[in-house]
Amino acid sequence: MRYTRLPAGIALVAAATVILAGCATGNDTAGGDSTGAEKGTVTLGYLPSWTDSLSTSFLLKNQIEKLGYTVELQTLTEAGPLYTGLSEGDIDIYPSAWIDVAQKGYWDRFSDDLEDLGAYYTEASGMLAVPSYVDIDSIADLKGQGERFDGKIYTIEPGSGAATFAEESLLPFYGLDEEYDLVTSSTPAMLTVLQEAISKQEDIVVTLWRPFWVTDVFDIKELDDVDDGYGEPEGLHFIAHEEFSGEYPDAAELVSSITLDDEQYSTLENMVVNEYGEGQEAEAVEAWLAQYGDQLDWVVTG
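RESULT FIELD:
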């Protein structure tokens, strides 16, 4: 399979909010505690364009700070350095790891130096999607249609779970790897291409995943996985370096207790990414907690 990188200068989709690395930490954030420096600093690492980990990073920041810790956010651009940082202890927690399927290769490689703090969501899955006006309904229907789609399936960052799983498993499983090139880029760039294709009513295939706010906002449909190429749904896990629970037992206990259902998760992501947006993530989490906090038995209200 050949790979093509999209031009780096493609404009971001307005809704695909990306935050800068210099985030407010510790007592600069509402709910911080003056004892944070004494209890220690917890570092959360994530990719800003992966909005599941963006949303849950700010949720964990809010909650762990209310235990009295200082929390720092570290942004990265690829999954490999994120897992390396975790394994070496430079990052304490990655708050949305797809280790059952999509990122299993990273987990298998680094798991000896990591610990799984539990899954906060258990119905995650990848998908191939097309605009709703495209008269193809299943992944199997893509076979023999390569010319129609210019022989391309658009995906996100090289090394991401979505790109790796499509390359190594899904496309070969359906016999599409000889007919289609996987076009890698950034998540925002892929969404820009998708949005432009929809505006022109053009045919396009992209890799997406659930949960993801895009599936509720863009005019798209998931292609049926008729032959079960994706397998069972997977969990979205909080993972940490192997010494985390021993160093921060109360934080580990809190994180391990967090679970979200479909409505809670989708509302959190939508508030962080779309309703509030860049620079107001902390406010989005507080608004979400005000709406859903009484449904959750793990919330720290300090």
